[in-house]
């Protein structure tokens, strides 16, 4: 039924009363035997013994745990392509043009309690394309339905091995971390000149004057400096993280999130001072040299040093159990339940600039909610239901195996694909590389 | 010249106390052996139930006694584990641990040799006892892994290793097996671009390589002569033909599992294990009927088919176990073998149950890998591969507090822990004068 209504581009809003659960609000403690009422897609009341309004579906959450829908600040599911690697600066392209609403990975993420993702451009170039913040309204053929309406624009930057490898394979800059810095500084400087040309033209318009050439790439960089586009930068090593802090300080850009950031823990005081944030893996490491000196205590060190931190998946597999990934910060660094769960809810919401809408259970926020049978930080927790805007997109009691929306008529026999954890990252997918062999190495 | 030498020596001598101090500062932690009494713990023996308040005596690397009423020898060093739980060390049934150090750097990976037919390649030879991943893994309670060569049709001979020791032989846990990748109808990402015809062509070619090799090995096994030959790739298969060595067949797609069962029944080899077995749940009854044990995983995996239920990989071990297949688990990882208990936890939550899942990474794994006479449970006479925890080791927040491998009390440290200690409260912390990141607020 969801399928039909969404097929025509209308974003559906739902009504539901989730009764008598343990409600983990994130911002206002954990409330026992509490109800959450969602009307027309928004949380309207949180309290005990709420009356069920007429026509509103009731969900009995007795003995269950109700939490904000999980937000993945780094994902490549539902992306039909990932890298525009033809130039080291491609700020003009956007993932919004390559959203694939048919990807069954969306349903599988919902079945892991995820309600929003940040569909990111890859890391092949220094300044990559713009990303797309999405809500997992699965069941539509229309990519626009998945857009997180009103979410700020964001863009991908990348430091270190990936962009320098591209430089080496093509014999161009950058081939070192020096070159990466230079390329970012040059790009911003060029954009300032571009803005000056336009400002001069606008300040003194006359019929005889010809407008400067419009350049979407430059305009996007101008928008970054104006704070209208949030930068999410692929990075690993402490030195390159520190470098970008200095560059952003010099160009007066106050908001910055480091993605992956395996060595962010080494410069945690500097990140905190700047007010930059980090979106990290729970425990992935050693897949390449720049993540060899990692520690699974990264998220805990950052959190305890006052750095806004989230845990992301960057993987169609991991995204299905981000609640478990967050729990690892209790083993590695003793984070509290609330600190651990904030890593996959409120904190990524802040990093994406959508925390007024999602990331906690509060009156007035969106009805994006996940229900678990046990505490979501338990390894035995099984997601039961997932709601986006009060609409139920996953229900374990009503879960048929085949959730594909579209079946390729050309493939008579369905392909059997054997999972390999080391093939998970798509950050370098589609990037120009020297050989097929290279494509399958060093992907992350 | 002589003067210079003398002053150099004087200098060095002056440095001696400094060097010693430096070492103390660094706190080089060494493993130690001895006579140990582990007391007051809840002991999960796996094979003989749970002892609520029990004692384990370890000496000469062996479990000498275990039970609720055990006399503590006067000369034993006593560890009071009140409120803690003790388990046999976890065993991962499939890894490249010790063979792979840094994923993207080919020079740091030694699990793949050139050629399709290289069963004589010994994983044990290439195990790096000083791999940074080894302490990272063992402090999570995994004490033994099956480390295996990959790639090709018959990529080599795998080995069981304990995660402590300074040479491969010190680490060797006592069993080996030939690895075979059964010719596959399935896809990995690597071959995504191949057409169905190309894939089938590859599969047939691989099957021919397999059958030619085993035909030769069977012929070779019949020759009764001391004559020296040099045909190592075939000689490496002969012990399998003679049922003296295990054969580990990597097979995943349902169709291939059925073919592999037929293949093995035709060949008649007796010591056979299926590994991978991603679609085992589709043909669980057939695997059970054939009586072939299985090492499956990773459990945290994406279903093999787009049309499959989202949780089919989580549920796979439980379905096979329920059907009567003997199941062990694996991570198929190198640097994150430490997540083995979580793979088991997911298997437990999705149908296998906690008890079976615990067996799958202890006694079942030990039996399947042919080392259950030595490890896999807490029993008198077995090797002291043991960990102590704050609770259920599958639970994510549980901490492993103590570790014994081969009877050695192994320090609970790793590079990742040392980095935490160093950087949690970094010194010097932020130097505002030199921060270099002053942002001019607009």
Could you walk me through the main structural features you see in this protein, from its secondary elements to its overall organization?
The complex is a heterodimer of chains A (444) and B (442). By secondary structure, chain A is of the alpha/beta class. In chain A, 25% of the residues lie in helices and 21% in strands. Chain A has a domain of 297 residues: Alpha-Beta Barrel (TIM Barrel). In chain A, strand 13, helix 8 and strand 14 form a beta-alpha-beta unit. In chain A, helix 4 crosses helix 5 and helix 4 runs parallel beside helix 6. In chain A, 58% of the residues are buried. The N terminus and C terminus of chain A are likely disordered. Chain B is an alpha/beta fold. Chain B folds into two domains: 94 residues, Urease, subunit C, domain 1, CATH 2.30.40.10; 286 residues, Metal-dependent hydrolases (TIM Barrel). Chain B contains 14 helices and 16 strands. The N and C termini of chain B lie far apart (66 Å). At the A-B interface, helix 2, helix 6, helix 7, helix 8 and helix 9 of A face helix 11 and helix 14 of B.
């Amino acid at each position: 039924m969801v399928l039909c209504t969404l097929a025509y581009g209308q974003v559906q809003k739902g009504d539901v009363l989730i009764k008598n659960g343990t409600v983990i609000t994130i911002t206002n403690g954990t409330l026992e035997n509490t109800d959450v009422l969602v009307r027309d897609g928004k949380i309207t009341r949180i309290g005990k013994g709420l009356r069920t309004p007429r026509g509103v579906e009731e969900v009995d959450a007795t003995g269950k745990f109700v939490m904000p829908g999980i937000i993945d600040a780094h994902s490549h599911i539902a992306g039909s392509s990932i890298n525009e690697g033809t130039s080291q600066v491609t700020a003009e392209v956007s993932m919004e043009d390559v959203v694939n609403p048919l990807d069954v990975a969306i349903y599988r993420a919902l079945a892991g309690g995820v309600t929003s993702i940040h569909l990111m451009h890859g890391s092949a170039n220094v300044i990559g394309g713009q990303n797309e913040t999405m809500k997992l309204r699965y069941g539509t053929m229309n990519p626009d339905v998945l857009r997180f309406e009103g979410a700020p624009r964001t863009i991908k930057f990348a430091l270190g091995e990936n962009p320098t490898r591209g430089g080496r394979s093509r014999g161009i800059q950058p081939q070192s971390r020096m070159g990466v810095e230079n390329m970012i500084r040059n790009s911003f400087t060029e954009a300032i000149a571009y803005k000056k040309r336009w400002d001069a033209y606008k300040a003194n318009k006359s019929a005889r004057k010809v407008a400067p050439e419009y350049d979407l790439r430059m305009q996007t960089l101008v928008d970054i400096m104006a704070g209208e586009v949030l930068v999410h930068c692929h990075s690993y090593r402490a030195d390159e993280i520190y470098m970008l802090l200095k560059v952003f300080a010099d160009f007066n850009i106050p908001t910055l999130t480091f993605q992956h950031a395996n060595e962010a823990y080494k410069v945690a005081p500097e990140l905190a001072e700047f007010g930059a944030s980090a979106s990290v893996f729970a425990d992935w490491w050693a897949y390449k040299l720049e993540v060899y000196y990692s520690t699974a205590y990264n998220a805990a060190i950052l959190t305890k040093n006052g750095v806004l931190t989230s845990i992301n998946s960057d993987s169609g597999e991991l995204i299905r159990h981000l609640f478990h990934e967050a729990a690892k910060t209790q083993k590695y660094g003793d984070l509290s339940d609330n600190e651990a769960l904030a890593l996959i809810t409120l904190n990524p919401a802040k990093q994406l600039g959508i925390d007024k809408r999602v990331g906690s259970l509060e009156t007035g926020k969106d009805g994006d909610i996940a229900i678990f049978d046990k505490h979501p930080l338990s390894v035995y927790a099984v997601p039961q239901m997932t709601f986006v805007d009060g609409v139920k997109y996953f229900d374990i009691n009503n879960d048929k195996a085949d959730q594909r929306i579209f079946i390729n008529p050309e493939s008579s026999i369905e392909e059997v694909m054997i999972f390999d954890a080391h093939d998970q990252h798509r950050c370098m997918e589609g990037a120009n590389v020297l050989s097929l062999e290279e494509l399958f190495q060093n992907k992350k | 010249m002589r003067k210079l030498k003398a002053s150099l020596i004087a200098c060095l001598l002056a440095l001696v106390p400094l060097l010693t101090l430096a070492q103390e500062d660094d706190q080089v932690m060494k493993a130690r052996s001895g006579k140990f009494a582990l007391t007051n713990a809840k002991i999960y023996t796996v094979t003989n139930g749970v002892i609520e308040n029990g004692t384990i005596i370890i000496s000469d690397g062996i479990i000498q006694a275990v039970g609720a009423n055990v006399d503590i020898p006067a000369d034993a060093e006593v560890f009071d584990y009140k409120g803690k739980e003790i388990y046999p060390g976890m065993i991962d049934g499939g890894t490249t641990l010790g063979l792979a150090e840094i994923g993207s750097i080919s020079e740091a990976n030694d699990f793949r040799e050139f050629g399709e037919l290289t069963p004589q390649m010994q994983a044990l030879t290439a195990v790096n006892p000083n791999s940074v991943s080894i302490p990272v893994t063992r402090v999570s309670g995994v004490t033994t892994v099956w480390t295996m060569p990959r790639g090709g049709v018959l990529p080599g001979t795998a080995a069981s290793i304990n995660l402590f020791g300074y040479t491969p032989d010190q680490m060797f846990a006592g069993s080996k097996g030939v690895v075979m990748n059964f010719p596959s109808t399935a896809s990995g990402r690597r071959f995504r671009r191949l057409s169905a015809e190309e894939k089938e062509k590859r599969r047939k070619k691989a099957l021919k390589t397999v059958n030619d090799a085993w035909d030769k090995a069977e012929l070779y096994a019949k020759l009764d002569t001391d004559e020296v030959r040099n045909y190592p790739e075939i000689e490496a298969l002969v012990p399998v033909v003679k049922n003296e060595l295990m054969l580990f067949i990597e097979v995943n797609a349902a169709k291939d599992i059925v073919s592999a069962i037929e293949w093995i029944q035709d060949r008649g080899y007796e010591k056979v294990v299926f590994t991978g077995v991603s679609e085992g749940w589709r043909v669980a009854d057939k695997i059970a009927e054939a009586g072939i044990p299985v090492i499956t995983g990773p459990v945290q995996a994406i279903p093999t088919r787009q049309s499959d239920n989202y949780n089919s990989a989580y549920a796979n071990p439980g379905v096979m176990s329920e059907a009567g297949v003997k199941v062990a688990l694996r991570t198929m990882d190198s640097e994150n073998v430490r997540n083995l208990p979580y793979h088991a936890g997911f298997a437990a939550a999705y149908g296998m149950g906690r008890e079976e899942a615990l067996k799958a990474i202890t006694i079942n794994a030990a039996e399947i890998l042919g080392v259950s006479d030595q490890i896999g449970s807490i029993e008198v006479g077995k090797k002291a591969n043991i960990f102590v925890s704050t609770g259920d080791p599958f639970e994510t927040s549980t901490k492993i507090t103590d570790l014994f491998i081969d009877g050695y009390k192994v320090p609970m440290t790793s590079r990742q822990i040392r980095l935490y200690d160093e950087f949690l409260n970094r010194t010097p912390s932020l130097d505002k004068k030199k921060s270099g990141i002053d942002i001019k607020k607009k």
